[in-house]
């Protein structure tokens, strides 16, 4: 299944299990730290609601008392009061809108911070099955769905609620019978809202999932644009993206179709309510049981009565979209984080670099072992090379040392202590890793070299770069060490990026060094250049070197040949050649291939 489609399938299954009311309670709980600001907004809302309720009453007074009696002075006073009431209501409305909007933005700020913190706490296994694009969609797009609700929707909803309460009270005080007639259609409106609620909830859930799929697909296409152009896959990729894009379009069209039918339904009910008031109110006026002024006031009240309900309907649409986004956000926040350090965990200090694998088993998925019975020891200052076919388990062995994953069986010890009994921070501070594809961050070259050694002096940075044979090319850059790198360091060559990564590892001065195909992306000439630097880097450190180029590990103290998750052969380069086994066969083929390439 393609990445985007997989996200849709996973998201659909994920969202079906969500509790909407629980999600809403959690979302409202995000507002709890801002109680004082919300109380002020509530007071302002009440002021606005009182103004909304008083306005029509003053209009009826002006018609029935001032105009009927031709009292110009009294009319002026009433109109002055009306202007004052509406003025205060407008000011209060403006102030509470600002207040709630400011609170909403703070909630969004906290939500994004929580998501990023959650990403940092999750185990690496979580990211193995998720696309970067979908995760970015959750922290950007899904959080943005909360923006309109928290910044405007809540204001409209609360304003409508308090305004509605004020209107109901005023209508009942003026004329109970006409008020009750006006309320006849409220159950119809509630049933209509309930009917559309289920439809909109499903529709907006699907829109959030498809947005994540589109983002994931787009991220993949942009990241792999060079490969797409190199293999002439542009048209195929466009068609593939159009499928995800069309699914997102269809989901949004479906959501719009439902919401666009909802608003007219509410309008029809509102119009019927106005007709009822005019008909019954006119009958009361004809019988002398109601004044024209009160009928006019009731008509205004009815319009105001249904307007909050209409606004609530609009906010309800926002709420469904926001809840769909919130469900995806809380799905991340509810993921099981990386297991915390044991309460009795020790801090690794002054590490000697001794690493022991004692019958280690490991599986990414329970029941599907990747490593079985791995047993070897790295003495301090010793270099151990891992070789073998792709997928044999070499990188899995290396990833267990810093506890990126936990062993499934056996024990892995550093300086005689099981790594599960050490704090992750102290363990990882003693380790430096140079992967096959080193990631460079936005910032200067110097910042990237000093990434693992915060506060390093420029002299230390330059010394590390010299040791990694990177100083010459760095000084040739436009701003030298202060040259800003593009995303992923794309303005450097692949070999240069790897040299910067070597310099970063040298500056970190680890006791344990892991090189995972670290020279595979460096050309042969550059590789020879950094061999001397590597000799300095490896000296006195316990090192694990994974390499396909066997010429780079002939001097290793111990070579382990890994196949199908097990150690098949072990020994020095010379000993393994004499055994004539798998290593000798691999070396012979590679050496013969190099001779043929040279020829």
UniProtKB/TrEMBL annotation:
All residue ranges annotated as the ABC transporter domain in the record: 355-589
Residues passing through the membrane, by range: 38-60, 72-92, 154-173, 178-196, 277-302
Membrane topology reported for the UniProt record: Multi-pass membrane protein
Keywords for this protein: ATP-binding, Membrane, Nucleotide-binding, Transmembrane, Transmembrane helix
Domain ABC transmembrane type-1: start-end pairs: 39-321
Region Disordered: start-end pairs: 1-20
Organism: Deinococcus aerolatus
Name assigned to this protein: ABC transporter
Protein location: Cell membrane
PROSITE patterns: ABC_TM1F (PS50929), ABC_TRANSPORTER_1 (PS00211), ABC_TRANSPORTER_2 (PS50893)
